[in-house]
Specification:
Layout (H helix, E strand, L loop, with lengths): L3 E4 L9 H15 L6 H8 L4 H10 L8 H19 L4 H8 L5 E5 L4 H10 L8 E3 L12 H10 L6 E5 L2 H10 L2 E4 L8 H13 L2
Parallel strand pairs: 1-2, 1-4, 2-3, 4-5
Helix pairs in contact: 1-4, 3-4, 4-6
């Protein structure tokens, strides 16, 4: 029986892809004088930590390592500004969490803790989470399953008692490697009370 739902953040609980895209490009433009186009962001950079994005750009010969910290700091500052400006309470997600109060709920994200907590707070979801695992709580972010394995161990549950909800390729890789049940969604708008309950019922029927 499913006893816990482990949610990714970006593209699952919040629609933050655009926030990260805009804030990273604002930082890159300010520090380096160039931006990443949307197609490249979706195919290569979406769903991974900022430092990993910078490492990829370095490997491509587009930035030098000595400016990593400057870009990272600018990106985080601009992300907080975007969240404060655009994030509002989400009635659909609040309804989802209220109607699943019998289940444990954890957010497992590649985002840093400060931005993850701010996103959840501003969208009215933080109070429903038992805890949050950020990229600061693991040695290897997604696609490593470490975050999910830490969560399941902390909850004291078996793999069959946990359902992971993920949308991005790297997140899905981490979810499947964890060994838990996985609900693959195409994006934020698919994470509804009805869909979650249907998937839980499906997994509960599996012997």
């Amino acid at each position: 029986m499913i006893k816990a739902i482990l949610y990714d953040l970006d593209g699952v609980l919040v629609d933050a892809t655009e926030w990260h895209y805009e804030s990273l490009n604002a930082a890159l433009k300010e520090v380096c004088g160039f931006i990443i186009n949307r197609d490249e962001h979706v195919s290569t950079f979406n769903g991974i930590p900022t430092i990993k994005k910078l490492e990829i750009l370095h490997e491509q010969g587009r930035i030098e390592k000595k400016i990593f910290n400057k870009i990272w700091e600018q990106k985080q500052e601009k992300t907080f500004q975007v969240i404060e400006k655009l994030a509002i309470p989400d009635p659909s997600k609040i309804r989802l969490h209220k109607q699943t109060e019998n289940l444990k709920k954890v957010c497992v994200t590649n985002s840093i803790r400060k931005s993850a907590m701010l996103m959840l707070e501003k969208t009215g979801q933080l109070q429903y989470m038992d805890f949050v695992i950020s990229n600061e709580d693991v040695s290897s972010p997604k696609p490593s399953p470490e975050g999910y394995k830490i969560t399941i161990e902390k909850l004291g549950l078996s793999l069959k008692e946990c359902m992971v909800v993920e949308d991005s390729p790297k997140g899905l890789e981490a979810a499947h490697k964890s060994g838990a049940h996985v609900f693959e969604v195409s994006g934020y708008h698919e994470v509804t009370l009805e869909n979650i309950l249907n998937k839980i019922n499906y997994f509960n029927m599996i012997k």
